[in-house]
Each structure stands twice: as C-alpha cells, then as structure tokens.
Design a protein that fits this description.
single chain, 80 residues, alpha+beta, three-stranded antiparallel sheet
Length: 80
C-alpha cells in the first residue's frame, strides 16, 4: 500500500501532536520515519513536501482527533 509507513508514523505521532494545542488544526508533513514539520494550511505543507522531497513519497495529514472525509472529483483537469 502506498504511504503505509508514513501513515503508521502519523498514527504513532498523532497523540504527541494533539497534546500541543498549537499543533491542532495544522497539517503534518510526514516522510519516511518522521514528521518533518507542521504547517498552517494543506497547500503550505504540500509545497514544503515538494520542495524538500521532490518526487519521493510523502504524506500530508491534518492534526485532528476527528477526521472528516473530503471528497474530490475524478474529473480534474489541468489548466492549459
């Protein structure tokens, strides 16, 4: 499964992240065996992931104790 290791790291580190009120609602950037930082927005975390890890796998997840499903259309098109 893609990003399985990163998901396990996120689950392992989530209690510590939630213990810090300043981290709640931020977006964690996870690469390999560590959380590489938390960012105020998904876009900021995603941009940092591409800057730091380029095309290597990384995960961005919201630091929350109640995750809400998000829906994305399959009908996405790149602007030309």
């Amino acid at each position: 499964m893609a990003l399985e290791r990163e998901m396990e790291v996120f689950k392992r580190e989530l209690p510590a992240l939630l213990a810090d009120p300043a981290q709640r609602g931020t977006f964690a950037l996870v690469h390999g065996e560590s959380v590489s930082g938390c960012f105020p927005t998904f876009a900021a975390a995603l941009a940092a992931g591409y800057d730091r890890f380029e095309l290597a796998p990384f995960l961005v997840k919201e630091v929350t104790d109640q995750e809400e499903p998000r829906y994305f259309s399959r009908n996405l098109r790149c602007p030309t």
